[in-house]
Every structure is written in C-alpha cells, then in structure tokens.
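Lab notebook, bench 4. Still working through the backlog of constructs that have no structural model yet. Next entry is a single chain of 558 residues. Request: give me the structure tokens for it.
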Amino acid sequence: MATDNDASRPWYVQDEPPASSEAPTTAPTKRSTRKAHAWRPVVAVPPLPCEDDATFEWRRLMPAWIVSGAIHVLVLLLFLFVTVQTSSASSGTELGVIETKIDDDVRDKNLINDEIGDDPELPLNYNVDRIEEVSVPGPANVEESVGIPKAPDTPPINVTPPPGFSQGTGGGIDNPALLGSGNLIGMPGGYAGGKLVPGGFGGRSGSTREKMLREGGGNMRSEAAVAAGLKWLALHQADDGHWGMHDFHQHGRCNCNGVGHNSDVASTGLALLPFLGAGETQRGAAANSLYAKNVDRGLRYLMAKQGSDGKLGDGYSHAIAAIALCEAYGMTADPSLRRSAQSAINACVAWQGANGGFRYTPKSDGDTSVSGWHIQALKSGHMAGLNVPVKTWRGINKYLDLVGGGNYGEVYGYTSPVGSPSMTAVGLLCRQYTTWGPRALGMQRGIEELQKRPPGGKDIYYYYYATQVVHNVGGPAWEQWNPKMRDSLVERQDMGTSLNRPHQKGSWSPNGDALDHSLGRLGVTSLSLLTLEVYYRHLPLYRKDLGTDKEEALRNGM
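Model written out:
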C-alpha cells in the first residue's frame, strides 16, 4: 500500500480501493480528496521511450522547416523569373567593352586630304573615261556628239566651293547662306572655268594626273625628271621671289653656267609655270605642298610688278606672267589673285593690234611668236573663268588667216605666210585653241609638217609647242612622237655628275639650243619641264566625254 507521503508516484496512479465494498469509515487523505472522482481500476501505462530534449525539439520543428524552405525556394524562383523577363523587355542594347586603339604618332600623317573632301565615298577627281555607250537610253545616233549640249549636269562635288562662287566671278561671297550649295555649272569661284572645260587644269593632281600620265605615255623616269627639275628651280629663286635667267646662279649661290636674257618678270612667269603644271600652288596641300612657299613668293613678286593698267612689262614678259597668274587663280580660285589675273587679261585685250595679232608694244601689228604667248594667256584666262571678249577671239582668227600658208593653212610664218617649223607649231596650237578640231584638213596636214622634224634635236622652243599640238590630236602621230620626245629630254637632263658643277643637277643645258643665249639654263629648263608635263598639264582638248559642245563653246566666246 502506498503512503500519503510517497511523492514519487505519478499523479495519475490512484489509491487502491478498500478490501470490502463498504465505504471507508475514515475521511480521505488530502491527496485522495484531490482525486475525489468516481473510483475506477488503475490502469498500468508503460513509460515513454527515453530521449533527450534536443532530439525531441528537432523532431517537433522539422515539419515547419520543410514548409518554410519550400516557400522560400518558390519565392526565389518567382523573383528570378520576373527580374529576367523585365530586363529583357526593357533593354534593347547589349553592354560590352569596346577597345579603342589611338594612334599618337601623326607626324607623318596627312590630316587634310584635299583629294577626298567631305565624303570619302564620292570620287572627286574628274574621270576622263568615255561612257557614251551607256549614258543615254534608246537608239543610238552615231552622228550626234557625246553628251547633251547645254546640259546643266556635271560630276557631283563633295567639297565646299571656294570663296567667291556667286555668278562665277571669283570675288567675295555675296550670300554666305549659300556656302556649300555651289555647283560646277556657272563658274563657281573659278571652278567651272578651270576644272572641267577642254584644256582645263583638272588633270594636274591626284588620280587623274596618274591616269593621264599612264594613258598619255609618261613613265617613272619622266616624272623623276620633273621632280628633279622643280627642285633645281626652287634652289635658284631669289629672296624677293623672282627668278632671273641672267643671274639665277647668284641666287643659288653656285657656279651653274648658261646665263640668258635679263628679264625678271618673264623669267619668274616662266619658272612658275612648271610648278603650276605639276599641281603645285600657293595653297598647296597633301602631296602638292612641297613648293607652296616658292609659288606664293613668285606670284607676289609678279603682282608687285604689275602696273595700274594691268601690264607686266613688254609683250613677252606680260603674256608669260599673265599665264602664270591666270593658271594660279584657275587652280585655286584665290580671291587675292582674281583682280591681278583679270587685269592682266584686260591688258592682253587692249594689247591686240589692228591685224588681230600681238607684238612687243600694244596696238602694234602682231608677230606669231609674241602672239602665241598672248593667245595662251587668253586661253588660260578663259579656262579660269575670267572675262575674254568674243571680239578678241575673232581678231585672233583674223591674224592666223593672215600668217597661215600652204594649201590649207597648215604652215605659219613669223609675220607672213612663209612658214617655218617653230612658227608652224605656234600657229597650229593657236588654231586648236580657237576654231580647228582634230579632223580639220589644215590640222591633219599641219601634223604631217611637224612630223618632218621629229624630236631628237635641240630646239626646245619648237618642241614645247609641237609636242602640245601632237598630244592634243593623239593617235598614231602621238604614239610615234612621244617616246622620242620623252626619252631625249630625260637623257639630256643634267645629272650633276660633273665634279666642278654638281649644283646643275636637274637642269637642262642651253648649249647648242636654237635660243640658248635668250633662254639660258633657266629658260630651257622651264620649257623642258613643261614639255614633260604635257600628259596632265591640260585636260584633252578634243575628248568628247568632257560633255562640251566645241562648236557651241566657240560661238559663246572661243
């Protein structure tokens, strides 16, 4: 029997009932009073397995952990899905690292490419290829000249026109708002006059020069000779910008021989022409910038010597200097040159004699030699977009008729129709600049006359004119003429091998030349260079793909 003070028993163990069925006679104890409910038998409950508190707690919380983990995984997956979809929908660009290579060494780089312009994809140089086979749709008319007469179409330009493009006068800018909208039609700043017309200056640089040199029959030896000759001229320029046929050796501080006539204006103009013929101007850039300062000083000297009436000395001096001024203006449209160039042209117009020719003094009856230089000056002015009256050209044709001889005017004399080789070459070039085309009977017979005296001698004055005439006509005559002329000039160039006069390298000796005492070493060198530049110095006179109607041009001023 358990006792009341046995506190070790569990609370659920009841006291045993009395032995009889009678109620107990004594009052229940305190514990039994607490358990005063109906009596029932005691059920024996086996004890729970023995386990520590930590294990019990882990088993109790495990279901909650499983539910919480599943919820967190689900929320994380939803978050990632929404974030990726939002980024993909809102961003259309892809971030990345761009590696830029910077070339710090620009000392040898040409940062101003005058051959490319604003649009590198648009060819700037004039292409002289024939395109008539595909240029106009429909049936071909073989009697029609190539191109459309008076058409305003020209090759596109991708650079801003030079200052002074309004109305093609080459002066100041009348409306700055129009800058950049110019076209090659209407002589914009001298462009139309000096770039695309037959005989123009557009072939003197860039890819056009290379192409015309190759197609015309020049080679690397002839170009090397030109480069050496230009270097020699540059070394013999005076400090004030002029060249002298009689004192060039003093300015070169050397012992070069072969002095000529004393005429600084004529000498300066004659020395400038080969630089201009090679594309060198006072505004030189890129490949044509080596002699920009030499050209600039020479032009400034000529302008300083020009009188208020536009004259630049006697008949020869004025005409040769006028050619240089007009070519420099036509190639650059430099506003600072326009007034001097136009004044020189005006003086040529006023110089013309009553018989239509030009001579040493104004208004005198002309001779073919002086007239040849004046006609070249007027042609250069016309190509540069300057004003040359129609009346002047008519007078020139009148003079050429007076001194032209033979059955068809194929030979020319000094002041009469009695022909000579040099004057025939001069007269034929003047005919090409005015009225005659390559098929004119007088021109064909004239070429035959020139072929009777082929290259090989020493008469640079004759060869300078004759080479231009034959080159303009082209064909078999040029194929025969060119190699002899080119190679003979290259072979005669001074290579500076003389121990006593190495400074003469690049020049041509006047010894034995027909005009040795007049031209001297400087004059012979200048004319030799111009002859070797014939391939690109002027655009072809008779190429139909220039899009110019020659007869129309003649009626409008030529």
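Notes after review: The longest strand covers residues 404-405. The radius of gyration is 50 Å. Flag for follow-up if needed.
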